[in-house]
Amino acid sequence: MTGSLFGEGAGRRAPDQCVVDAYAGVGRTLDDLPYTDAFESLMARVRDAEPGAEHREVFHRLHTLRKAGRLPRLGGQGGVSPVRLSYEHEQMLIGMVVEAVGSLGQRDRLPYSETFDGLAERFAGRTGLNLTRHDLWRLIARLAK
């Protein structure tokens, strides 16, 4: 793929629009999207236009587009209760995220990375909690707010 990740140049407009359209079609907020069937659906739509698109790269592009104000505002799926952690487990998770990426503010680097996979395995091993990747991501996103 040519061009920069941040959409400079006229050649990036169509692929970025494809990502925006796919995002609008799934109906889930960006923070609620990783590790869901909805993200897999988004990826299928993106790969129709960009066969080599990777999860991590598309997630990063979505964040860049959101920061640029180019993503539509979506409401989350109602009725889904987030997983709750004890205070001790929350503090442990915060420490693990900071260790992995430097700060909670850098959490968006985690999804679809080996770093996230390792963090998930370590967290499960230390806590005995059997969380899905999506639930763990939602916890991290919530703790950072």
SSE layout:
Elements: H1 13-26, H2 37-49, H3 55-67, H4 87-101, H5 114-127, H6 133-143
Helix pairs in contact: 1-2, 1-3, 4-5
Give an overview of the whole structure:
This protein is 55% helix and 0% strand. With 145 residues, the chain is mainly alpha-helical. It folds into two domains: 10-67; 87-143, no CATH class. The radius of gyration is 16 Å and the shape is elongated.
List keywords for this structure.
mainly alpha, 6 helices, disordered N terminus, 0% strand, 145 residues
Quantity of strands, as a count: 0
Low-pLDDT runs: 1-12
* Tally of structural domains: 2
Compute the average pLDDT.
88
Question: What's the Cα radius of gyration?
Answer: 16 Å
Largest sheet: none
Number of helices: 6
Name the helicity range. Answer: 55-70%
Shape: elongated
Query: How far apart, in Å, are the first and last alpha carbons?
Result: 34 Å
Which secondary-structure class do the elements indicate?
mainly alpha
